[in-house]
């Protein structure tokens, strides 16, 4: 089968950072399904794993954690899917990734592809949808489907992949959304996604949010980095909650959190698959729910750029786009040459 792999961990402009390869097609066992990959998406986690380091792989390594495709075979313990089913998923950080023609993935972290989307549109969604869903509904315990009507959320990093889907999920939950963006094109994008208010994360967040009439907000999601920690602590309401997807070495003073009895949550969407948690199947369920929301017009794909075909050259270009820090929405690669 065709694949895009790496041997060395190099700068993305190095032509050896990704290589076109031919690998053996794997066979499913247990609860694994074998998926013929039709489209893939690139996320910041991909660029972090590919980033230069003093390491050489003995055999070609395939990374990538966003895919849409069709089931071609199933393991003997599979109950959720059958050959021919169209699926989408983010996969498992501890296993070979989606930058290959055929991929093994545990059925419990796979959802049925939205029927209203093509494979490229669907591939833009899984990792970010899982992250945003878990951040809001599992970590912050926000009630979905209108259950949080009138509550407020500040989404720091609104125009990125996670922020783009998070705004939509927040609106579905009934939240008043304040999203951050700093450029005219990103401001326009977060408004398209449904943000009620937009503030500039390159300026003082506290004064901007309070100028909108919010002394405090009920929930805060930090979807870019932790430089805004002090502002988040100042803005969170007493007994409110902050969720972050960014690990950091920056100082994180906790005094303000303590006196407000506020909570801090970490979201890492690979935790369930990495640790084989008893509730792994929740990712199957939430992806299926997201697919229903898409098919009912409640959620839209965040795809903004498609590259064809899936090969080393285009994957390098996608990584360059993500590493630039200027991405709006998601970049997808589709089809094999």
Automatic annotation (TrEMBL):
Looking up PROSITE patterns in the UniProt record yields: QOR_ZETA_CRYSTAL (PS01162)
Q: Where in the cell is it found?
A: Cytoplasm
> Which CDD domains does the record associate with it?
AL_MDR (cd08252)
Which GO molecular function annotations are given, in alphabetical order? oxidoreductase activity; RNA binding; zinc ion binding
UniProt entry keywords in alphabetical sequence: Acetylation, Cytoplasm, Metal-binding, NADP, Oxidoreductase, RNA-binding, Zinc
Out of the domains of life, which is the source? Answer: Bacteria
Give the multimer and partner information. Answer: Homotetramer.
Give the family from UniProt: Belongs to the zinc-containing alcohol dehydrogenase family. Quinone oxidoreductase subfamily.
Q: What is this protein called?
A: Zinc-type alcohol dehydrogenase-like protein
